[in-house]
Amino acid sequence: MQNKSEQLLKTAQKLTELGLNKGTAGNCSIRFGDGFLVTPSGMATEDMTAASMVQMTFDGSFEEGKIPSSEWRFHCDILKSRPEINAVIHTHSMFATTLACLHKDIPPFHYMIAVTGADTIRCAPYALFGTQVLSDHALAALYQSKACLLANHGMIALGRDLEDALAVTIEVENLCEQYWRVLQISNGQLGEPHILTEAEMREVFQQFKGYGKWAID
Fold it and tell me: Considering its fold, how many domains does the chain have in total?
């Protein structure tokens, strides 16, 4: 457990270091045994230690004396329903959150959308944080995808491990910044951004089957 807790702590610290989360915002989890470990509720990363990580089971029970992230429900539901996924990251990063506040899906304006395994990064409808409704919306938006936006909230990214989930998080935030800038330039000046076709995205997915860390099985 100690090794997994250390990995989770380092990931939470890295998210803060990269500016993807600030203060007590955001959370992350990793599959562990018959359940998972999740970051604690309301604790800034500089105050966390490996011992702060909270062990949970898929029935929602958790270690006595600790309080898991208020978003533990979607961590639990994602890991329970997606056996190929072993890590979940949630951020309130600037550009993903900006577009999420506009309730915007991110279409295939750039081929790197394929890192999510889908051709669109969907935006889940708004629901109060920490609720089962939010988790249900997130699961639907994440169907056959490793990332989604949460309306008026932030982003969720998934991975086969924490390193993969972090890489997806960084790339999705980068794509959101690029799309935000494209929308700024195109609005009333250059027309709508060109969106790659379904056939073009199929070619990208095929190419990604052997493309380094983004390889798709």
Answer: 1
Task: Judge whether 146 and 117 are in contact, CB under 8 Å.
Answer: yes
Active site (catalytic) residues = 71
Tens digit of each residue's pLDDT (9 = 90 or more) over 77-96 = 999 999 999 999 999 999 99
Spatial distance between the Cα atoms of 24 and 53, rounded to a whole number of angstroms:
14
pTM above the 0.85 mark? yes
Domain membership of residue 146 as a residue range: 2-214
Dist. CA 152–CA 108, nearest whole Å: 22
**Can you read off the two tokens belonging to residue 175?**
């794509």
The residue type of 134 is L
Q: What is the mean pLDDT of residues 107-136?
A: 97
Confidence tier at 193 by pLDDT (50, 70, 90): confident
Looking at residue 82, what DSSP letter applies?
-
Give the closest residue to 137 by CA, choosing from 123, 124, 120.
Answer: 124
What is the 3-class SS of 9-68, one letter each residue?
A: HHHHHHHHHCCCCCCCCCEEEEEECCEEEECECCCCHHHCCHHHCEEEECCCCECCCCCE
pLDDT at residue 217 greater than cutoff 60: no
Q: Tokens standing for 21?
A: 């989360």
In angstroms, the first-to-last Cα distance of the chain is 29
Q: What is the CATH number of the domain that holds 166?
A: 3.40.225.10
